[in-house]
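Sample pair:
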Amino acid sequence: MPTPRQYDRPVAVRAGQALLEGDLSIPERAGGIVLFAHGSGSSRHSPRNRHVAQFLREGALGTLLIDLLTSGEEKAEAATGHLRFDINLLGERLVALTDWLRAQPDTCGLSVGYFGASTGAAAALVAAARRPEIVRAIVSRGGRPDLAGPSLPRVAAPTLLIVGERDALVVDLNRDALGKLRGEKALAIVPTATHLFEEPGALDEVARLAREWFRRYLAGESQERP
């Protein structure tokens, strides 16, 4: 059921031994909520993810931007790089965050979606395979879905893979992963875009595609509003 309230607040969520910090935003009459899974070397302050999140909120979708690593882990990661490809760890934390959303009075009635970037996309697919009854839609931006491995055929949520036309290796990896997904799926290639979608208009196109996908599968809309 859509929530009539609108607010933004910081959150701290326990995931195993880790306390993860994030920003929860619920627009008025939200029809769903999207949990962001950032890639290695990024955080909830990523300007690209925040840009997409703003598009989603303008489409009446809540967002949870959250760090999947603690500040201590981020410092260690910067020095060693030992966590950036620990997809199981990141997936477990997304599962904990998903369960937290379902337990909160202000978000328990909202359909849950995942927006994953880079290695975060693989973590999102792993988590979705573990919570098929909760996760209703997934969007990947320049993601590495191949790193989800055996979880791919177990993903039930409709999944949209978005890649830049000039990100050749990642395009091939996404095409291969698309063939292993068993549920509803689509691959969108943004013309002239590279891996970070830094070209004029490229990130706006990512945000538009994501908003349309989440509106369809979280809020039950068949197309973009005028």
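Residues 87-103 form the longest helix (17 residues).
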